[in-house]
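note to self: dont lose this again. the chain is below, predicted strucutre after it. 201 aa total, dont forget to put it in the shared folder this time
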Amino acid sequence: MPELLVDFITSLDGYASGAGWPGFWGLEGPEYLAWLGAQPQATHLMGANTYRLMSGFAGGAVPDGQDEFRPEEQESVDGLTAAPKVVFSSSLEQPLTWANCTLVRDDAVEAVRAMKASGSGLLTTIGSLSLSRSLLRAGLVDRFRVVMFPVITGATGAERIYDGYPDVALEMIEHRTFDRGIQLVEYKPRVLDHPPLGTPA
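---
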């Protein structure tokens, strides 16, 4: 049975991106990039908004404020293009233009539940905050990994990761510090009905 990994990169204050900042907040170093490039083959799960953004990058668009991708950013986009991807959307139309994508119109939670029951290998989310939140709420997430970059983007941060999340207990199973102060933490999550010392409302 495949594992499902929810995987985020964030600022220290829990934002997925920041206006005017380059990819990886400009802080990726050789050690982190080597680790990123050595990750096992996975099927990437995403929603329509992430698909539109990432397929645009694959088609030659660049983030606002940049003239072109830096080599490490382009390598990351190329790696995603080559990987198998499943896109959950009722608004996108076939055929999807980004290579190696499968469009699924069914309920994402039930579709991922079926993928876990019948498939093999690793499933991992990319971005897709609402999809990741729904999969976590449904108890389908086996591992929850966050790579935190040492910046606070209080003035420019976009896409707050944890808004709307349930309470979740996290059992740490891995941690690591990369070059330039980048921190990785990985957990086994357990969704809580109520705080451990509280009672249901």
